[in-house]
Amino acid sequence: MITIRKATLADAKQIWQILKATNCGGNTFPFLAEKDLEEKAMMDYWLAGDKYIYVAEENSIILGSFYLKDNQPGRGSHIANAAYTVSEASRGKGVGKLMGEFSLKEAKQLGYKALQFNLVVKTNQVAVNLWKSIGFKIIGEIPEAFQHKELGFVNAYIMYQKI
Predict the structure, then answer these.
(1) In whole angstroms, what is the distance from residue 150 CA to residue 135 CA?
(2) CATH number of domain containing 54
(3) Which of 7, 107, 113, 114 is 20 to 30 A from 75 in CA distance terms?
(4) pLDDT at 93
């Protein structure tokens, strides 16, 4: 059974392996990660104190991770922002959807009024369809916002859901 819990520092190695694979794909995350993505820099970012970090696990194996944070400071802090990563072995098994649904409930419990994604790569139809399936709407499209590793500059969506 897959459970979702708050991440701990002991999870860092497993989270790193998932993030590294996601980044190196060059088609979903904006981080540059060709050959030598610096582990310390990425983990400092993912595990930073301004975020609520979670993992999805089964039998002590981390299948994915996500974070919630303020989308903007101050007067924009009532809207959450999030990022998600799922291990290659766990893709297509509902882990992303489970984390997405959990994050909406958790964001509401944390006092957020909505969840907004600022950069959903348009060519990542798996993610676009997933977010739509749990109630997100496309509220904007940014031309050439993402440097896709294979396709060059592609558009990205801003997606939003009130909670």
Answers:
(1) 30
(2) 3.40.630.30
(3) 7
(4) 92
User: pTM of the entire structure?
Assistant: 0.91
CA distance 60 to 56: 9
Please report, for residues 70, 77, 79, 95, the alpha-carbon distance to residue 74 in angstroms, rounded to integers and kept in the order given.
9, 5, 10, 32
Domain count, the chain: 1
Q: Which of 37, 45, 32 shows the shortest CA–CA distance to 20?
A: 37
Q: Has residue 34 got a pLDDT over 60?
A: no
DSSP of 79-126, one letter per residue?
Answer: EEEEEEEE-GGGTTTTHHHHHHHHHHHHHHHTT-SEEEEEEEETT-HH
Q: Who contacts 118 (Cβ-Cβ below 8 Å, separation ≥6)?
A: 71, 81, 158
The pLDDT tens digits of the residues spanning 94-135 come to: 999 999 999 999 999 999 999 999 999 999 999 999 999 999
Nearest to 107 by CA among 87, 133, 84: 84
